[in-house]
Amino acid sequence: MINEQIVEQFKQNLAQVNQRISAAADRSGRTADDVQLVAVSKYVDAAMTDLLIQAGAVVLGENRPQALDEKFQTINQPGVQWHLIGQLQRNKVKKVVPQAALIHSVDSIRLINAIDKSATDQGLVAEVLLEANVSGEAAKHGFPPEEVAAALDHANSLSSIKVTGLMCMAGLASDSDDVRSEFARLRELRDQLGSAELVHLSMGMSGDFETAIEEGATLVRVGATLFEGVT
Predict the structure, then answer these.
(1) Which of 132, 216, 219, 226 has a CA 20 to 30 Å removed from the CA of 187?
(2) Where are the domains of the chain?
(3) Per-residue b or e along 188-197, where b marks 16 or more CB atoms closer than 10 Å to that residue's CB
(4) CB of 189 within 8 A of CB of 145?
(5) By C-alpha distance, which of 128, 134, 212, 113 is closest to 164?
(6) 3-class DSSP state for residue 81?
(7) By C-alpha distance, which of 11, 27, 43 is closest to 206?
(8) 138: which DSSP letter?
(9) Is the domain 3-227 a CATH 3.30.420.40 member?
């Protein structure tokens, strides 16, 4: 496919996903403006990601700090916002802090401390989400739900990190009912914490983002569906 055809396919895919977001938001008593699509570009290189941006994607999600750095340095598109949605190791924090408008996957006190220190050193405030392991699967990252409140209190005691919500991944072995209950559990956990600062729930991917929106997601991480017909 030539670039013009790829951009057109991306536009069609984005429109379809946004329609599905709008319908799911309506079912949850909200509007499409209450939900932000994070276009997951981890599948492709910087050139293809640039075409996705040309098609209208404005918030891009990367799993790997190295890929985020490459695309941040390479792509020059105004108004684009980068999110880190994958696991972050402490030795990668320094570069990520100034590049990521939001870090979704903060899963330990040590990582909270590393982000705060790096942000302080760079004169920044890092916006993050705390990842909660609501499925209980050992293979999943994230704080056990019962430890999220203490992690939030710790982060709130620091000066250069700001927690604006929670994030989760549905369990690999979860069926559709389990997935819905896991998303509901994240929403309930956020509500129990009782903090007006926790405005975001990052949950839902290509296979389940509509369910996530119905259960309160404000950020949905959609990748594979956007690349149908392209790769």
Answers:
(1) 226
(2) 3-227
(3) ebbeebebee
(4) yes
(5) 128
(6) strand
(7) 43
(8) T
(9) no
Cα atoms in the Cβ-side hemisphere of radius 13 Å centred on 78? 0
- pLDDT of 60 reads 98
Question: What is the separation of C-alpha 199 from the centre of its chain, rounded to a whole number of angstroms?
Answer: 13
Ranges assigned E (strand) in the chain: 36-40, 59-62, 81-84, 102-106, 126-131, 161-167, 200-202, 219-222
What is the residue-level pLDDT of the chain in tens, covering all 231 positions? 799 999 999 999 999 999 999 999 999 999 999 999 999 999 899 999 999 999 999 999 999 999 999 999 999 888 999 999 999 999 999 999 999 999 999 999 999 999 999 999 999 999 999 999 998 887 788 999 999 999 999 999 999 999 999 999 988 766 888 999 999 999 999 999 999 999 999 999 999 999 999 999 999 999 999 999 996
Distance between CA atoms of residues 119 and 98, nearest Å = 8
Distance in angstroms (rounded) separating the CA atoms of residues 50 and 77? 8
| Angstrom distances, CA of residue 81 to CA of 102, 109, 157, 212 | 9, 26, 27, 22
